[in-house]
Design goal:
Structural class: mainly alpha
Number of domains: 1
Radius of gyration: 16 Å
Number of strands: 0
Largest sheet: none
Distance between the termini: 24 Å
Helix content: over 70%
Strand content: under 5%
Order of helices and strands: HHHH
Length: 134
């Protein structure tokens, strides 16, 4: 359990990002049968969060330290990409008072930043440990 604490934290944060992006802190909803651009940002965050959950799960299940470090680096890079999705890669609504600007983007940024910090520490520690094995 102790040796998988980073992986567990990564799964929890990625699951929070994934589920939260279409529930608690979802972007703006449908208007007159149409979706605004922020809806697609939400979908991209949900998809990337799902990939991060799978990477973190593999990180827990596999035993090779070098592979674990590589998966942690993948989680780190994916978390950084999630930070950039809302309003950088995919535009959000025009008004700053809309839900996508006031709730969705800050929540995604905070959770993905914490995830990046955790996976960054996991990557560094994993690389150090895998280097000692050789």
């Amino acid at each position: 359990m102790k040796k998988n604490i980073f992986g567990i934290a990564e799964i929890v944060l990625a699951a929070l990002l994934t589920v939260g992006s279409f529930t608690v802190f979802k972007a703006c909803g449908e208007h007159d049968g149409k979706y605004m651009a922020c809806h697609w940002a939400q979908n991209a965050v949900t998809l990337t969060g799902t990939v991060i959950v799978l990477l973190a799960l593999l990180r827990i299940l596999l035993s090779d330290r070098g592979v674990k470090a590589g998966l942690a680096i993948g989680v780190l890079l994916s978390a950084i990409s999630v930070i950039l999705i809302p309003d950088t890669v995919i535009s959000l609504c025009m008004m700053d008072t809309m839900r996508c600007h006031s709730i969705f983007r800050p929540a995604v940024t905070v959770i993905a930043s914490v995830l990046a910090a955790v996976s960054g520490a996991d990557s560094i520690i994993g690389l150090i440990r895998s280097g000692k094995d050789k």
